[in-house]
Amino acid sequence: MLVSSPIFDLLFKLAGWKLVGEVPRDLKKALVIVCPHATWKDFPIGLGARSLLKIPILFWGKKELFEGPFGGIFSWLGGYPVNRGTKSNLVDAIVDIYNSKDSFYAVLAPEGTRKDVQELKTGFYYIADGAKVPLIMIGFDFVNKEIKIREPYYTTGDFQKDKLDIARYYQSIPGVQKSWIKNYLAEAAE
């Protein structure tokens, strides 16, 4: 898996992006979540950020990305295919992967799509909670071209409570106007 590359570093910086915050170097495992997932540009920007962080972060992606002529490239870049079309025990399988490793990072977009959604997919939460690993919340600030990294967030086991903290963090990222954030904050206000 390609983790760091001077080419990714250079392209990230030439595009005008920068990292704000960092991942603690002593943290052995985490589930990285990225929002908003709004454009195809998220992927190359994310590769640049990962390269600068120099952390071997795998990414979960729909299995269709790994088919055809580009499948090998996605695998080489650290991808892991997920079949989203079947009802499987994917959360437990991923928790088992975390539990079997001394060090493991993976990233996913909890929105599950580039379209606006009313709520997040909850698998990310139950993976982090089940594996007892923190969430590293990363916000793509397209307004200021900043990748904003929040300190590790440990789940409480109460998604209703924690989703509010997650929504508040992503609400603080300039330009992020997502329905799920508004819905979660409105629920809390009731």
UniProtKB/TrEMBL annotation:
Which pathway, per its entry?
Answer: Lipid metabolism
What domain of life is recorded for the organism? Bacteria
MF terms from GO for this chain are: 1-acylglycerol-3-phosphate O-acyltransferase activity
Q: Where is the Phospholipid/glycerol acyltransferase domain?
A: 31-143
Keywords tagged on the record: Acyltransferase, Transferase
List, alphabetically, the InterPro entries matched.
Plipid/glycerol_acylTrfase
Tell me one GO biological process term: phosphatidic acid biosynthetic process
Q: What is this protein called?
A: Acyltransferase
Source species: Aquirufa antheringensis
